[in-house]
Write a structure and sequence with these properties.
Elements lengths: L6 E2 L3 E9 L2 E8 L5 E9 L2 E3 L7 H13 L5 H10 L13 E4 L3 E2 L5 E2 L4 E8 L4 E6 L5 E6 L3 E3 L4
Length: 156
């Protein structure tokens, strides 16, 4: 999420956004406070509209999915949202469980584990916010993985 702002105004810098036909979710860094905030907005012909964003639920879900995929929301927020909705994968992953990556994972040594890489949970951080996972393929690595980036592989 960090880096050069996508758009800047006197009010805020746009850090990330997801757009579906003018319906937009934006992560803004507010200039007056330095805080990051989320804005739901409506745009027409590239211009901000000073009216509420009204969407059918299916369109809202599609926009939320895109915002999650494009990094508008923090990993902490996404994990908390999963817990709130009762679909928190972290609560369902005990030590020694087999897991798979749901996103590519950049390692500290510069290598990258691809989406779908499999491994075993060797340690649970906190209440399951993150996991220490030992991967064997495509190469051996032990990495700390945020809960939203893991899926448990059902036992055979």
């Amino acid at each position: 999420m960090e880096g050069r702002p996508m758009r800047s105004t006197r009010y805020a810098d746009e850090i990330a956004s997801a757009d579906e036909g003018g319906a937009r979710i934006e992560r803004l860094r507010i200039r007056a406070t330095g805080a990051d905030e989320i804005r739901f907005s409506w745009w027409k012909d590239g211009r901000f509209q000073a009216r509420p964003l009204d969407l059918p639920e299916d369109d809202l879900l599609r926009l939320l999915r895109k915002a999650i995929d494009e990094g508008v929301f923090s990993e902490v927020f996404v994990g908390n949202l999963r817990r709130m909705l009762g679909s928190d994968v972290s609560a369902a992953i005990p030590e020694h469980s087999m897991v798979t990556l749901s996103d590519d994972l950049a390692l500290k040594d510069g290598r990258s584990l691809p989406e779908g890489a499999r491994g075993a949970v060797v340690f649970v951080h906190g209440d399951g916010e993150a996991y220490e996972v030992e991967f064997i393929e495509p190469f051996h690595a032990v990495a700390t993985v945020p809960a939203p980036s893991l899926s448990r592989i059902p036992e055979a």
